[in-house]
UniProtKB/TrEMBL annotation:
Location of the Cytochrome oxidase subunit II copper A binding domain: 128-257
Coiled coil: none
Main localisation: membrane
One function term, GO molecular function aspect: oxidoreductase activity
Protein known as: Cytochrome c oxidase subunit 2
Taxonomic source organism: Kutzneria albida DSM 43870
Membrane-spanning segments: 55-77, 98-116
Family label: Belongs to the cytochrome c oxidase subunit 2 family.
Matches recorded under Pfam families: COX2, COX2_TM
Gene Ontology BP, a term: ATP synthesis coupled electron transport
């Protein structure tokens, strides 16, 4: 009888393993996609740190869940009632009670350690930034100011969004960027999904005892949509921007143009004019490619 039960359990295990293998193969996912367990792809080292934490936590949860399931099913399958004689009772087994008290404490401590170290890595501001950006949120758009770069009239280089133009936050890859966040009215939230990071933007953050800055680096060139993630009024859903990540060489070229006078207009180059003048393909598109302005004229819209 025992041999038959062992053979049956082995068959069940093989079938379960085969089903799991087929399920993974049928999805067509790469190893990286499988190990992300649904975590979105990031473009910063900080996003990678969070992904690694997520992957480790999910694997730990699956292992613990599997062990728990086995411990539950073991007595169900192998200790079914076979007579009137009671099996060996383990209540008041102090060593066993210590074990199943210590193990959860160790699990929680390990998860806490890796969570705390990842959080410290993501929120670390100890690096000397290569670029500082003052991010100013207002109903219902964004202003990006580069205090380290001046136009010929002595003003900081800045880009301001409008209801007809999505503002472009142009940044260099592989360089440390510090974002200084502030709102001119209500609470907003600076969110770039590919950063896997969101931070609320407060008016007078110092008075509200808020952490109003963060740092990161961007691994790859590209255009990444940014949004306000805090309900801030009527046109909250239209409060978008775009991060345009350029190589350090292209970024330097962009900023060199931004600090010069455009001979055609007699004014400093705008972000769109500078990108157009650089002529480097879609990466230097003068308008946002990840989102588009929202028509604020209510009379121009019809109900569905």
């Amino acid at each position: 009888m025992g041999l038959m039960e062992g053979t049956r359990a082995a068959r069940i295990a093989k079938v379960a393993g085969l089903v799991g293998l087929v399920a993974v193969a049928a999805t067509g996912c790469s190893t990286d996609e499988v190990l992300r367990f649904g975590w979105p792809q990031g473009v910063t080292p900080q996003a990678d740190d969070m992904r690694n934490l997520w992957t480790g936590a999910v694997i730990a949860a699956l292992v613990i869940g599997l062990i728990t399931a086995v411990l539950i099913l073991w007595p169900v399958v192998f200790h079914r009632k076979r007579g009137e004689e009671l099996p060996k009772q383990l209540q008041y087994n102090h060593p066993l009670e210590i074990v199943y008290t210590v193990i959860p404490v160790v699990i929680v401590a390990v998860l806490f350690y890796f969570t705390a170290t990842t959080e410290n890595s993501v929120t670390d501001k100890s690096h000397t930034p290569d670029v500082n950006v003052n991010v100013v949120a207002f109903q219902w758009n964004w202003q990006f100011e580069y205090p380290g770069y001046k136009t010929p009239d002595g003003q900081p280089v800045r880009t301001v969004g409008s209801s007809s133009e999505i503002p472009l936050l142009v940044l260099p890859t592989t360089k440390w960027v510090q974002y200084n966040l502030r709102s001119t009215d209500v609470i907003h939230s600076f969110w770039v999904p590919q950063f896997n990071f969101k931070r609320d933007v407060f008016p007078s953050p110092e008075k509200n005892n808020q952490d109003w800055a963060f740092q990161n680096t961007i691994d790859q060139q590209g255009a990444f949509v940014g949004r306000c993630a805090e309900l801030c009024g009527v046109y909250h859903s239209a409060m978008n921007f775009e991060v345009r990540a350029l190589s350090p060489e292209l970024f330097d070229k962009f900023m060199k143009l931004r600090t010069q006078i455009n001979a055609k207009t007699g004014k400093p180059y705008s972000a769109a004019e500078a990108l157009s003048a650089m002529n480097c393909g879609e990466l230097c598109s003068p308008v946002a490619v990840t989102t588009h302005p929202f028509n604020t004229d209510r009379t121009a819209r019809t109900g569905s």
